[in-house]
Design brief:
mainly alpha
Length: 105
């Protein structure tokens, strides 16, 4: 595996573990109510701006993944879409780059 692929994989793992640590802490303290978390994301204009920034990035990444999968027929790379929306762009983007950079056999 190339050093760049290892970096993408490491970033995907970090992008999974780090945000989930905070999400799980929040759920344990506040209860397992996703709508309550969404409300917390919009507690002020700064956090709302960040939510929209990440949402637009996630939609853009999804469009890019779909366009590339349609061209490359790398169907396994579609797993980056649910990773993006269930965990975050911090996981989905490096995961997709890892999957995309797989050597062609």
């Amino acid at each position: 595996m190339s050093p760049l692929r290892m970096i993408y994989l490491a970033l995907a793992i970090w992008g999974t573990i780090h945000p989930m640590y905070y999400f799980i802490q929040w759920f344990q303290a506040e209860g397992w109510d996703i709508m309550r978390m969404v409300d917390a994301w919009h507690v002020n204009t700064a956090s709302s701006g960040l939510v929209w920034d990440l949402t637009i990035a996630a939609v853009t990444l999804t469009i890019w993944i779909i366009a590339e999968v349609a061209t490359r027929h790398n169907w396994g790379a579609l797993v980056a879409i649910p990773a993006t929306f269930c965990i975050g762009v911090s996981c989905g983007l490096p995961l997709y780059l890892f999957l995309r950079s797989k050597p062609v056999s």
